[in-house]
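Quick one before lunch.
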Amino acid sequence: MSYFEIIGGRKLNGEIEVKGAKNAALKAVAAALLSKEKWVIANFPFIEDTNRILEMVEDLGVKVNRGDRGNKRDGERSWVEIQAKEIKKSRLNDKLTKKLRASIILAGPVLARMGEVRMHHPGGCVIGKRPIDMFLDGFQKFGAKVKWQNEHFRISAKKLRGAKIFFPKITVTGTETTMMTAVLADGETILENAAMEPEIPMLAEFLNKCGAKIRGAGTPTIIIKGLKKIGGGILKLIPDRIETGTFAILGALAGSRIKIKKCDPDHIRALLVNLERAGVRFEEKKDELIVWGAKNLKPVNIVTHEYPGFATDLQPPFTLLMTQAHGASLVHDAIFDGRLMFTDILNLMGADIIMHDSHRATVHGKTKLHGRKIASPDLRAGITLVLAGLIAEGKTRIENIYQIDRGYERIEERLQKLGANITRRK
Ligand code: EPZ
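Model of the EPZ complex:
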């Protein structure tokens, strides 16, 4: 099993490019199944999660062509082509569904195209409870029948009808899945209390280019007029805002000066405001962010929130940042109930973090971190442990790095270019 070995304490300097957004890529692959025509998804990140969703699509009999160093598409060397002329089966692969929570997003397009979808309950990140009730309610509102037997769902509908759906809780993937399904439903769908993450208007804009009729994506109310079919084209993914934010925190923790390229600082506004409050110096341009290492960090309390609030995916690296601030800061993850568990590992490395309950912890700083043998519990905690290793004294060995490879493409090579001493070992 591969692991990362990190020798901490080096000052990092230079440039790092942000890849296309993982959570936009996953949804774009699913949405490509709505069309019989070819979709090219450019600026595509080749990471474990996107590999898994492409494998799932191939398993359904859909043609996928991967280009990760060939001809440029829409100015990008990294792209995939997907053409779902036909979908050969309606059963999602069990093994892959259990590996990837986001596999649920395939349910809507497959249901819309095939009149049926069968799948195992999706697995994925261990960051707390991940129910799918709002997806199932949504499918039922479109007129589908949902049957549950032996950990499997069968969702079926001869015809999907447009519906009015109010989400009792804001859900990112739930919003995206119902929005996609509504594109091929009969009549008008209104989604209320919808999520507003930037990946949603990106997808809606492209679906509209393919002929769909979606209004309001990026606001809490999305209105979709259903159609019989949509076309294809080239979709360029937006930069990954979680990578951007993670690299900004890395810059504050370990950088002398780090330039983050090909990013959109507007997508991480809530983080930037809090970095400023913590005393981090940065300069932003349209698609660049320069961050300087922070000397005297101040403690800042944060509460995670749906977009445009503070992203839960950036909570773990921000919690690490707070271990280096002078004083106490309260971290409240309001979205998931398992996302602070990794603080135990930071404590093993020398941090002083006290959990009050599954959602809240107080970080007491400033603490010196020491290298340890640890394992990555999930994706965002995993990258946080990489950052922790980079500022810790001595050697850190991180196991279970599949979890990190799920979301960050060849991260060690990109960090090495900044001067980090990190090696992938077998
Ligand atoms: C998306 O997950 C992201 N994943 C997550 O990123 C991210 O942490 C999360 O949004 C919040 O921003 C993808 O886009 C693939 P939700 P999602 O539905 O859509 C509850 C990462 O590290 N809920 O918005 O699955 C749920 O339990 C990943 O890249 C229900 O109760 O999250 C949570 O408390 C991890 N019933 C809240 O809603 C449902 O049917 C928000 O979850 C669905 C969700």
